[in-house]
Each structure stands twice: as structure tokens, then as C-alpha cells.
């Protein structure tokens, strides 16, 4: 990677700062990118409606007792394939609109346990060139295109700067297991204009996620940048639309009825809303994408038995099954519609899983005496 301003003092330990910095490149200001790629009226309508409906489900006020389904690729590396997947998902969104609120998982930044490809924003060409300005441009164009089609989207927020480029086109956010305990991410979530889910810790511990949603309800102050790109102190009002995501962990899964019962008790003990989303992947699938339908089947069964605390699920799905390594020739050698991070279920399996979840919602409504056509 070349730098606009190369640091001549890199490696010089006699310097008191920056000797580990190779150089810096200018970053496109958020308002410039938003001006060049403006949100369309269709996009804004989709985003706002998606937020409103998601909040109603999270807070238990949705009259149809629907399920919030955040579903899509583990991460997006091919915008064209993402748009094709969106077209498939739009059909399911309309088909199950009375049972499911489908929001497309649109993850562009990947936190890594050690090292690896960090996502479309960080390295859009998947070749170690780290053209972040290009990544932000691709990301914003994709998000505007997806939402203009009528598909609300969800993503993971990893820092306090990239939301200035993208937050206006998001309906749901997530904080990952590795960052749920981070004060910075809690502060960030307290100022976002959409609901945010916090995953339990990588070891499966629930306390950090519950503490997080308790913290983000309150106002916070932190360092970020303004739309023109000037560093600033940001003050927030707090975000009451946050929730826990159960994703399993090194200690085992936590999607079964007993785990749901324990999670509800933990939330009740803290005086918090009993509102849970279950991640069908990661620890709950034992990192095997073939187990995701089994997790979804358990959730559908619990819904059918009248469980009200489960308000959502998260599923890693793609056009084609599994995942792939980036070949020596780079992007040109990748298979179409196949993840390059975590393995995903394919579209045919996705259709079956969505049908099963929708049926579970119908049965829950019947048990609770709720009119699904309200």
C-alpha cells in the first residue's frame, strides 16, 4: 500500500511517537460521499419503515407478533451478487410479510479473532491494497441500491467513523461478541438512530450483553468526526431500542428452551425487557452451517409453543452453500455467490427455513389469540 504522506521516521525508536506508523492517506469526508451518492426517496422510505417495524417487534408492540429475521451473507465481497441475493429475498419478504419482518444482513466489516480479510470497506479488492476510500464508496452505493429496491438492511458497527458514511441507510445494527464489552461501542450505539443488538460474549456469557443494553440507554460523550470530517466530541441521548443476541459460545449453545428461560430470568432480574434474538450461526451452530436449520427448527417449535420472548433470529445465508478461500489469482478466481468468510446455507435451504419460521409465528399467534391480519 502506498501512502500520500509517508512517515520517514517509521522504525526509528528514537522518536517519541509514530515510529510504528508507515504513513497516512486522506479520507473522503462523509458529507462529500453522501453528496456524491445521495439517499433516494425510495431508500429513505424503506429505511424508516424498517426501523419503525423493527422497533415495534423488539419492544413487543407489533400487533401481528411477527418475527424479526436478519438474514443474508456472512459478509459481502461482491456487490453484484448481493443485489442478486436481495432480489431473491424480496420475494420471500413479500410472501411472509404477515409473519416475518425480513431485513437483509449486509455486513461489510469483519472483526477478526486473529487476522484475515477485514471486509469490503477495508480491502475492497481483496488483495491487500486497502483502498478504504473505494470501499466506502462501494459500500454506500450498495446500501443505497439495496434500500432503494425496498429491502431494509442490517450491519455490524465496528468504529465511530464509518457510521457517518452509512448510518442513514441502516435499519438495524449489531455489536459483535468481541466488542460487546467495549465502552467505545456502547457509546456509539447510544447515539445511533436505529435499534442495535448486542451479542453475548465469545465464551457464551450473557452478562456482558445485558450490561451493554443497560449502559446504552443512557447519554454518553465520545470522540468521533463530523460530516465535514472534523474531529469532534459527540453527545448522545441514549438508545432504548437495544436487545440481546444469543449466539452461543465456547461453553456451548444457548438457543434451546432452557437457555431461553435462563436468559429471560437474567433480563428480568435486571429489570429489562425480555426481548431476545437468536443467532442460528456461530456458537449455536458449532460453526457448521448445516446446523443452522436445526437451530431455526428449534426456534420455530418454541414459537409454536407460544414463546413471546424470542422476537428475532439471525441467519447466515447466501445464493450458494458453504464458503471458499480466496485463490492465488484473487477475486477473478472466486466462485459466484459463495461466502469468503463463514459458511452459509444456500437459497433453497433458506426458503425452507423461512417457511418453517413463518409457520411457527402463525402457531404462536393461534396460541396467544392474536389476529395475524391486524
TrEMBL record:
One term under GO cellular component: cytoplasm
Domain DAHP synthetase I/KDSA: 56-354
Family: Belongs to the class-I DAHP synthase family.
Catalytic activity as recorded in UniProt: D-erythrose 4-phosphate + phosphoenolpyruvate + H2O = 7-phospho-2-dehydro-3-deoxy-D-arabino-heptonate + phosphate
Gene3D superfamilies xrefs: Aldolase class I
A single GO molecular function term of this UniProt record: 3-deoxy-7-phosphoheptulonate synthase activity
Protein name: Phospho-2-dehydro-3-deoxyheptonate aldolase
Ranges for region Disordered: 1-21
Organism, scientific name: Sarocladium strictum (Black bundle disease fungus)
Keywords for the protein's UniProt record, in alphabetical order: Amino-acid biosynthesis, Aromatic amino acid biosynthesis, Transferase
Enzyme class, UniProt record, top EC level: transferase
InterPro entries reported in the protein's UniProt record: Aldolase_TIM, DAHP1/KDSA, DAHP_synth_1
GO biological process: amino acid biosynthetic process; aromatic amino acid family biosynthetic process
One Pfam family, short name: DAHP_synth_1
EC numbers for this chain: 2.5.1.54
UniProt key word Amino-acid biosynthesis: yes
Amino acid at each position: 500500500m502506498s501512502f500520500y504522506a509517508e512517515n520517514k521516521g517509521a522504525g526509528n525508536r528514537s522518536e517519541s511517537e509514530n515510529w510504528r506508523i508507515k504513513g497516512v492517506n486522506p479520507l473522503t469526508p462523509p458529507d462529500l460521499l453522501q453528496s456524491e451518492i445521495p439517499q433516494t426517496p425510495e431508500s429513505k422510505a424503506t429505511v424508516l419503515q424498517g426501523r419503525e417495524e423493527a422497533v415495534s417487534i423488539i419492544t413487543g408492540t407489533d400487533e401481528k407478533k411477527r418475527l424479526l429475521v436478519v438474514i443474508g451473507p456472512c459478509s459481502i465481497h461482491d456487490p453484484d451478487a448481493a443485489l442478486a441475493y436481495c432480489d431473491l429475498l424480496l420475494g420471500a419478504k413479500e410472501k411472509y410479510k404477515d409473519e416475518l419482518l425480513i431485513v437483509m444482513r449486509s455486513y461489510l466489516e469483519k472483526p477478526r479473532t486473529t487476522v484475515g480479510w477485514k471486509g469490503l470497506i477495508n480491502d475492497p479488492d481483496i488483495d491487500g491494497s486497502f483502498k478504504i476510500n473505494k470501499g466506502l464508496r462501494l459500500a454506500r452505493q450498495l446500501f443505497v441500491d439495496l434500500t432503494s429496491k425496498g429491502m431494509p438492511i442490517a450491519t455490524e458497527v465496528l468504529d465511530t467513523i464509518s457510521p457517518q458514511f452509512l448510518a442513514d441507510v441502516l435499519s438495524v445494527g449489531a455489536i459483535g461478541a468481541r466488542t460487546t464489552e467495549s465502552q467505545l461501542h456502547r457509546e456509539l450505539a447510544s447515539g445511533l438512530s436505529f435499534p442495535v443488538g448486542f451479542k453475548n460474549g465469545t465464551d457464551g456469557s450473557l452478562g456482558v450483553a445485558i450490561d451493554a443494553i443497560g449502559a446504552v440507554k443512557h447519554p454518553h460523550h465520545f470522540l468521533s468526526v463530523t460530516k465535514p470530517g472534523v474531529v469532534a466530541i459527540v453527545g448522545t441521548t441514549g438508545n432504548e431500542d437495544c436487545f440481546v443476541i444469543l449466539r452461543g459460545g465456547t461453553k456451548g449453545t444457548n438457543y434451546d428452551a432452557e437457555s431461553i428461560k435462563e436468559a429471560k430470568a437474567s433480563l428480568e432480574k435486571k429489570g429489562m425487557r425480555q426481548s431476545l434474538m437468536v443467532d442460528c450461526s456461530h456458537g449455536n451452530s458449532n460453526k457448521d452451517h448445516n446446523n443452522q436449520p436445526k437451530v431455526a427448527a428449534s426456534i420455530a417449535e418454541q414459537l409454536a409453543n407460544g414463546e413471546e420472548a424470542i422476537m428475532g433470529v439471525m441467519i447466515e445465508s447466501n445464493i450458494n452453500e458453504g464458503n471458499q478461500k480466496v485463490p492465488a489469482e484473487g477475486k477473478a478466481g472466486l466462485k459466484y455467490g459463495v461466502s469468503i468468510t463463514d459458511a452459509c446455507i444456500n437459497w433453497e435451504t433458506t426458503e425452507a427455513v423461512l417457511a418453517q419460521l413463518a409457520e411457527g409465528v402463525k402457531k404462536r399467534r393461534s396460541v396467544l389469540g392474536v389476529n395475524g391480519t391486524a
